[in-house]
Design a protein that fits this description.
Helices cover 23% and strands 44% of the residues. By secondary structure, it is α+β, with helices and mostly antiparallel strands. The protein has a four-stranded antiparallel beta sheet, with helices on one face. A hairpin with a 5-residue loop joins strand 3 (46-50) and strand 4 (56-60). The longest helix has 14 residues, at 26-39. InterPro entries: YhzD (IPR025544).
């Protein structure tokens, strides 16, 4: 399992969510990240999810 990082920002640049989670691969991480965004209703907020090697898995501006 790999550790992925999910971060959500407000329009003012405030950090709204900074969470780590584990997934087997980037596809699974993308699904888990989308679920976590939906839980908090952050789908339309600026967010990113990155893999342990720094690759973007999810991004919304």
């Amino acid at each position: 399992m790999k550790t992925y990082f999910l971060t959500v920002f407000s329009k003012k640049g405030e950090n709204l969510l900074d969470e780590t989670f584990e997934a087997e691969n980037d596809d699974q991480a993308s699904s888990i990240g989308k679920e976590k965004l939906a839980e908090h209703d952050y789908q339309e907020m600026t967010h990113r999810c990155v893999s342990p090697n720094g690759r973007l898995v999810l991004f919304h501006r």
